[in-house]
Amino acid sequence: MNLFADLLATTGAGKKPTPATAMQTGPRIQKGRRGVEIKSAREIAIMRQASRIVATVLREITELAAPGMTTADLDRHAEKRIRSMGATPSFKGYHGFPASICASINNEVVHGIPSTKRVIRDGDLLKVDTGAYFEGYHGDSCVTLCVGAASEQSRQLSRVAQESLMQGLARIKAGNTLLDIAGAVQDHVEAHGFSVVEDYTGHGVGRNLHEEPSVFNFRTRDLPNLTLRAGMTLAVEPILNAGGKGCRTLADRWTVVTSDGSLSAQWEHTIVVTSDGCEILTDRDF
Question: Of 212, 247, 210, 248, whose CA–CA distance to 232 is shortest?
Answer without folding.
Answer: 212
